[in-house]
Write the structure tokens for this entry.
Amino acid sequence: MSKVKTSFFCQNCGAQYARWQGQCNSCKEWNTIVEEIIQKSEKQSWKPETTTTTKASKPLKINEIDSAQEIRMDSFDGELNRVLGGGIVPGSLILLGGEPGIGKSTLLLQISLKLPYKTLYVSGEESQKQIKMRAERITPNGDNCYILTETKTQNIFKQIQEIEPDVVIIDSIQTLHTDYIEASPGSISQIRECTAELIKFAKETNVPVILIGHITKDGTIAGPKILEHMVDTVLQFEGDRNHVYRILRSLKNRFGSTAELGIYEMLGSGLREVSNPSEILISHKEEALSGTAIASTLEGMRPLMIEIQALVSTAVYGTPQRSTTGYNAKRLNMILAVLEKRAGFRLGTKDVFLNVTGGISVDDPAIDLAVVAAILSSNEDIPIGEGFCFAGEVGLSGEIRPVNRVDQRIQEAEKLGFTTIFVSKYNKIALKNTFIKIRLVSKIEDVASELFG
Ligand SMILES: [Zn+2]
């Protein structure tokens, strides 16, 4: 019996140490380093004791490399395809992170049932019966989908050799363990080794692997940042459990942009792809209410019309409250200061609440102008004209700055039946003959006087 070998790992960033210490040198977190048993076996392969004839790769001249090689597999899910940049790249490792209970398993199970390829769905979390029950709620077919309840990687690879799937899904990486390491499942060294085995498998066979990873309270993929470095693509599934909408975002993508966004609606029968999100993000009401304004924003290449709601009221308590959902709180404070200093609105003693509908958080600075309009509308208690929308960034001196791809924003607004859009005077607009009226503004005072006279 060989001596048990241990090592120390930071549970936050995965850094390895020879002995325990209070603070991690690499991520500077305190008390995150714990001892884990590692006992590496000599031979280490995803193939269980068979010949290991790995093809060593050969250098090629750059002109010999086939540039059209990135063939993608259609995932038969428009939103997932969009976020991945056109589909699943064979041999890639995709990590899908998200809080427990947000719907990661539902999403991947639903996709595996739809795929026309042979798919192996490995679950360490639920029994085959439980998964079958869930699958029946989603769709009655699923002829190509195999379900395996297993947590040991060596057993999983044995099944893979028999079934020869085209896609492998692992639910979740935190439940896996490999024989080559003695630490408990979910520990840094187990997660790292199991992922390494799966990467080796994916690269050697060209079969894509999708991993589910649970996220801790502070929003990082549980345990390891290291996982994010190892895989090709990191997707995050987010949303509020109280809202029906879920957002699929890519945080890292070796094969495409990270700017794209997928939107789903959670239904009793599974997740519905929302292909025209603007329609759901704008609430439809009978009468015009003060305090709401529509922003024409862009998420990746896709334009989105988003409703901003503001409530401005006299502060009941000494210090006025400011609270936002889906919009940067510092940015709100800046906008309020600009409104007070540059346009003379006395908001210093008012409570201001701001909400982006649908539970989405928006980074696009073009939303500023709609925020200003919503705040002023609530403050004046005058509804904004019907069919109005906004796209502009607000600067510190109260100027309305131009936004990128303004033509696309205007077109989307027009497509959805808006009649007037407010944009910066400094934007160069190439569009001709639009039905929608384009109002050019340069300062927030202009906006205020145009809207409320
Ligand atoms: Zn660390």
Q: What stands out?
A: The domain at 74-273 is CATH 3.40.50.300 (Rossmann fold). Confidence is low (pLDDT under 50) at residues 49-53. DSSP finds eleven helices and 21 strands in the chain.
